[in-house]
Design brief:
Radius of gyration: 20 Å
Region (Disordered): 51-70
Pfam families: Acetyltransf_1 (PF00583)
Biased composition (Basic and acidic residues): 57-70
Number of strands: 12
Order of helices and strands: HEEEHEHEEEHHEEEHEHE
Number of domains: 2
CATH superfamily of the largest domain: Gcn5-related N-acetyltransferase (GNAT)
CATH class of the largest domain: Alpha Beta
EC number: 2.3.1.-
Helix content: 25-40%
GO molecular function: acyltransferase activity
Length: 274
């Protein structure tokens, strides 16, 4: 896999040409920024910014037009004003290769709070090692209705120790309005939900995203996470996808590397609360 070429394809298909990730979301390009506006339980934020050639405040380029409209701080302030006007908390999703250098520091200076850094990992599906099965007594079942969503949310809240009501709303919306754009699964040990994950498909692109993979404490280290990755990878291949994309934590990165995923850059959420 040509890492630079795949990263450029990722930027173009999933960021610069982003599609709404929910039935009530809207994506628009405003100057150098691509942003999504969604209901409160959806994802609101900046997914891409073309600030690589932006000017520093007060700078004029010799022989060129007045660059004040592309000053980095002005662009940041405009997004704050827009989402604050909607009374929306929002995220500026920043990647390690985004320009200009120091954009993260500028966001912090403007009032954003950085979240944990993760690794953007991408795997070319035909090259992945997917020969894994769940441990004895565990079965993988699809999430197709409200009862399945409830099982998935139960796992999510136990595994990540965080409220997941926002995810319940998002999943129910998607299952109702666009079920073909999501594959969600729960691992059951008997009747007990012990692990869960979802995959989001982006029509018109070669990518599918793996999200929310989590396992309750008592069942970690038994290969369930690998099994859920393999299950979703096979489902993506059946739907014509070529690449899988994951924002990997430090815990999941080594597992994904053993399966054949490659680390391409870092990513971190910068969150602004009005």
């Amino acid at each position: 896999m040509d890492h630079a070429a795949v990263l450029a394809l990722f930027d173009r298909e999933l960021r610069e040409d982003a599609r709404p990730d929910g039935p009530d979301a809207r994506v628009e390009r405003i100057g150098p920024v691509v942003r999504q506006t969604a209901p409160r339980h959806g994802w609101n934020g900046v997914v891409w910014s073309g600030l690589g050639g932006a000017a520093e405040p007060g700078e004029r380029r010799e022989g060129g037009p007045d660059p004040r409209g592309t000053d980095v701080d002005m662009v940041i302030a405009a997004q704050i004003a827009y989402f604050t006007g909607l009374n929306r908390e929002f995220e500026w999703k920043l990647y390690g290769h985004d320009l200009p250098a120091g954009l993260g520091q500028r966001l912090v200076a403007a009032g954003f709070t950085p979240g944990p850094e993760e690794t953007l990992m991408i795997g070319e599906i035909p090259e992945l090692r997917l020969d894994t099965e769940p441990p004895k007594g565990v079965r993988i079942v699809p999430v197709t209705d409200r009862a399945g969503v409830d099982l998935m949310i139960d796992v999510h809240e136990k595994a990540f120790r965080a409220d997941a009501s926002w995810l319940r709303h998002q999943m129910l919306d998607r299952l109702t309005a666009a079920p073909d754009t999501m594959v969600a699964v729960v691992a059951l040990a008997g009747r007990e939900p012990v692990s869960a994950a979802r995959m989001e498909l982006v029509p018109g692109t070669r990518f599918a995203g793996l999200w929310g993979g989590g396992t309750v404490d008592a069942w970690r280290g038994r290969g369930i996470y690998r099994t859920l990755v393999a299950h979703r990878a096979r489902a993506a291949a059946e739907r014509g996808c070529r690449y899988l994309q994951v924002d990997a934590s430090s815990r999941s990165r080594p597992i994904l590397e053993r399966l054949g995923f490659a680390p391409l850059t870092t990513t971190a959420p910068y969150v602004y609360v009005p």
